[in-house]
């Protein structure tokens, strides 16, 4: 199969507008006769479901949580990017486009990224109209802050709860349509297979997670908005329920899976504390606006801190290495996530780590507290030399900007981040890879669309902070509602799609067969036993740094672990009701396939770019070394029975508006 990205002709600034002017439309009366399934109700799925229902389509929305409000989008804390130039600091649609392509290490599709930047401003207007309480300046205008990889302030935020507030906006829009009967909501349901009729996606098989009932649902199109696959590493910043099952099921039915090795390691996470953990906690990138990252400059000081003989506050400024500011003076602590993560790993690997495991660096707010405190004292006409007063005033400012994040850190670590530096270390956070989609956000299966983090389209090899919320809402509110109409226009006279067909029979039988296999398997080990083993293979050999030997071993070990899993997993209970071990078994089965494809993709890409860092391919200064001559393409994998047999298809990345150069943040 050839890959047709369907990118419109013409200048990049005009592509989306001209495209919308000429695509097919469905009139309001005909929309009432068309059904759309939306799987996942986070920011992408929720905004899509609400908008499609508002347009008049009949929407069936599915989420495995008890409410769409529990989607993992709530964990996106720091903000959402938009090119509004409210600060007057030189921002523009083009600059957001450029920063995103550069931040992704020149491995994103130009046309999609420009469209994302173009519609970003509309997202803010939409959310304000919904009542989302975005932060405001003293005069009442919306406030902005900086994020990594940019030299402007374009990130809109709601303290450290931006994702939650945006999700509530989408949820309120959904609720209006649920009340009107235009959205039929299926909470506690999980999609377990895609149904294809005459080459087109026409429905899904879902399991009611409360009753265990297997259900058939038909539609004229299916939209996957189920998020990313970071939990293939077991320990990640993702919610424990986040999984890749919906995206992987459509992959096995013919949707190509693109760039699985592009996975983001976030630099500001609370470090691992032991094998007892089931997930990691993210400290928002917004903290890097005011927090300074450092390690001791001397090995003996780092060792003394690890042994509990010294504390961070005992070290004078001259004995601290603010390594991001030293290595990247132009961007300092606000370099992109992949750059900051590798820099922290390098310092820790060299012996400068500061917690008991040696895998942590400091994120320090002392300088910011003093700076803000003196500013407030000056404004209020108070004594700027009163250290206690300045500290109190500065702490109040920091609390107003990041208070909930500081509180969360205190509750987890039991240390006060206002008086002692936070400890952070990189952890798996976001997946830039995902199902391949064209300009319309449609996969290689006609009628099956993929939006938000579940697709690959906008971030290249590394996502800039505050761009996940932007992409999810852009896809759901402003892109898919146009492009899906173009696809559905010929179907207006079809009528409802029946579910009593051989295609639905086959898909349901496949699901029942898998469930029966797990329930009747008399193994000796829990699902988590295998998931943890997979996670260790992934982190040790397919994590922040990769090499040919480790990746080859990872593929073999994952394949062997998958065989052991099917042979020796034990799923207690029954499939006739609520059974979270069964849910996990189905998801981990998918991770055990995805993990192998992940390693295969990383092995074939003989270069370093963004979140994909091959130790064999780096500059003398330890930066990612791309190979644009041989690898400037999207790697889209076709399923052929097992991951090791997957077939590679290449979509060339043609840069007509941005020059390919070695990325630099110095």
Poorly predicted parts: none
Biggest β-sheet description: 5 strands, parallel
Radius of gyration, taken over Cα atoms and rounded to an integer in Å: 25 Å
Query: How does the overall form come out from the CA principal axes?
Result: globular
The CATH architecture of the domain at 267-428 is: Alpha-Beta Complex
| Strand segment count | 19
The pLDDT mean sits at 96
User: Strand pairing plus helix content: what structural class?
Assistant: alpha+beta
EC number: 1.3.5.1
Membrane topology: Peripheral membrane protein
Cofactor: FAD
GO cellular component, one term: plasma membrane
Q: Could you characterize what this model shows?
A:
β6 and β7 (200-208) form a beta hairpin. α3 runs parallel beside α6 and α16 (548-568) runs antiparallel to α17. The strands form five sheets. A five-stranded parallel beta sheet has the order 5-2-1-9-17, sandwiched between helices. A five-stranded antiparallel beta sheet has the order 11-15-14-12-13. The chain is built from 18 helices and 19 strands. The chain is α+β, with helices and mostly antiparallel strands. The model has no long low-confidence stretch (mean pLDDT 96). Among the domains are: 267-428, Alpha-Beta Complex (Flavocytochrome C3, Chain A, domain 1), CATH 3.90.700.10; 501-652, Fumarate reductase/succinate dehydrogenase flavoprotein-like, C-terminal domain (Methane Monooxygenase Hydroxylase, Chain G, domain 1, Up-down Bundle), CATH 1.20.58. The longest helix is centred in the middle third of the chain and has 27 residues, at 387-413. The protein is globular and about 80 Å long. It is 39% helix and 14% strand. It catalyses: a quinone + succinate = fumarate + a quinol. Residues 35-469 form the FAD-dependent oxidoreductase 2 FAD-binding domain. It comes from Flavobacterium agrisoli. Belongs to the FAD-dependent oxidoreductase 2 family. FRD/SDH subfamily. One of its GO terms (cellular component) is plasma membrane.
């Amino acid at each position: 199969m050839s890959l047709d990205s369907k990118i419109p002709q013409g200048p990049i600034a005009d592509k989306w507008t001209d495209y919308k002017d000429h695509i097919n439309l469905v009139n309001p009366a005909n929309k009432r006769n068309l059904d759309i399934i939306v799987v996942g109700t986070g920011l992408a799925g929720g905004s899509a479901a609400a908008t499609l229902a508002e347009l008049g389509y009949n929407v069936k929305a599915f989420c495995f949580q008890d409410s769409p409000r529990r989607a993992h989008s709530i964990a996106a804390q720091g903000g959402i990017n938009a090119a509004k130039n409210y600060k007057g600091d030189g921002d523009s649609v083009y600059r957001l486009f450029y920063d995103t392509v550069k931040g992704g290490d020149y491995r994103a599709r130009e046309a999609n990224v420009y469209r994302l930047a173009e519609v970003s401003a509309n997202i803010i207007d939409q959310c304000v109209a919904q009542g989302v309480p975005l932060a405001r300046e003293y005069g009442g205008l919306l406030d902005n802050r900086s994020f990594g990889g940019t030299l402007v302030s374009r990130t809109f935020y709601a303290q450290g709860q931006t994702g939650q507030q945006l999700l509530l906006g989408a949820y309120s829009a959904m609720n209006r349509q649920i009340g009107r009967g235009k959205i039929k909501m299926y909470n506690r349901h999980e999609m377990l297979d895609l149904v294809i009729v005459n080459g087109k996606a026409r429905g899904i098989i879902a399991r009611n997670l409360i009753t265990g009932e297997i259900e058939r649902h038909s539609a004229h199109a299916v939209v996957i908005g189920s998020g990313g696959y970071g939990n293939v590493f077991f320990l990640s910043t993702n919610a424990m329920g986040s999984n890749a099952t919906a995206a992987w099921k459509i992959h096995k039915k013919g949707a190509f899976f693109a760039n699985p090795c592009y996975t983001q390691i976030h630099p500001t996470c609370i470090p691992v504390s032991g094998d007892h953990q089931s997930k990691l906690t993210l400290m928002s990138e917004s903290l890097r606006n005011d927090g300074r990252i450092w390690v001791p400059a001397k090995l003996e000081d780092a060792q003394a801190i690890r042994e509990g003989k010294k504390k961070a506050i005992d070290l004078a400024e001259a004995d601290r290495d603010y390594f991001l500011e030293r290595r990247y003076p132009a961007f300092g602590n606000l370099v992109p996530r992949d750059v900051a993560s590798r820099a922290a790993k390098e310092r820790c690997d060299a012996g400068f780590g500061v917690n008991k495991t040696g895998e942590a660096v400091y994120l320090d707010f002392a300088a910011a507290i003093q700076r803000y405190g003196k500013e407030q004292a000056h404004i209020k006409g108070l004594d700027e030399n009163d250290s206690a007063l300045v500290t109190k005033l500065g702490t109040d400012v920091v609390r107003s900007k990041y208070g909930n994040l500081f509180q969360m850190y205190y509750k987890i670590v039991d240390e006060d981040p206002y008086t002692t530096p936070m400890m952070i270390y990189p952890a798996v956070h976001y997946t830039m890879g995902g199902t391949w989609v064209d300009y319309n956000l449609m996969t290689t299966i006609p009628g099956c669309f993929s939006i938000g983090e579940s697709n690959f389209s906008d971030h290249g090899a590394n996502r800039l902070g505050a761009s996940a919320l932007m992409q999810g809402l852009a896809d759901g509110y402003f892109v898919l509602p146009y492009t899906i109409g173009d696809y559905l226009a010929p179907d207006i006279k079809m009528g409802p799609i029946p579910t009593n067909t051989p295609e639905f029979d086959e898909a349901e039988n496949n699901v029942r067969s898998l469930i029966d296999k797990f329930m009747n398997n008399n193994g000796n080990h829990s699902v988590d036993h295998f998931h943890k083993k997979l996670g260790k293979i992934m982190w040790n050999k397919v994590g922040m740094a990769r090499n040919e030997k480790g990746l080859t071993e990872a593929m073999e070990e994952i394949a062997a672990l998958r065989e052991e899993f099917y042979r020796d997993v034990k799923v207690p209970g029954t499939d006739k009701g609520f059974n979270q071990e069964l849910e996990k078994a189905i998801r981990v089965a998918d991770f055990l396939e995805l993990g192998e494809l992940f390693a295969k993709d990383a092995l074939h890409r003989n270069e370093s770019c963004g979140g994909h860092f091959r130790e064999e391919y780096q500059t003398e200064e330890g930066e990612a070394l791309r190979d644009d001559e041989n690898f400037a393409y999207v790697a889209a994998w076709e399923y052929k029975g097992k991951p090791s047999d997957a077939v590679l298809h290449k979509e060339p990345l043609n840069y007509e508006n941005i020059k390919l150069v070695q990325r630099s943040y110095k």
